[in-house]
Design goal:
Shape: rod-shaped
Distance between the termini: 77 Å
Structural class: mainly alpha
Number of helices: 1
């Protein structure tokens, strides 16, 4: 019975860690895409400024 409780605890910890990692990964992706969008806008502005 103690092994089942131990395994259950371990599984719960693994699931909590996995959820935490997933949320962190989503935040990183959002930041990366946000920075890419800002850089794209700056490049467009720069391109228009150079051409004119």
């Amino acid at each position: 019975m103690a092994q089942i409780a131990k395994a259950s605890k371990s599984t719960a910890k693994k699931e909590a860690y996995q959820k935490k990692q997933e949320e962190g990964g989503k935040k990183v992706l959002e930041w990366i895409f946000g920075v890419l969008v800002v850089l794209a806008i700056l490049f467009v502005v720069y391109s228009i400024w150079i051409v004119s």
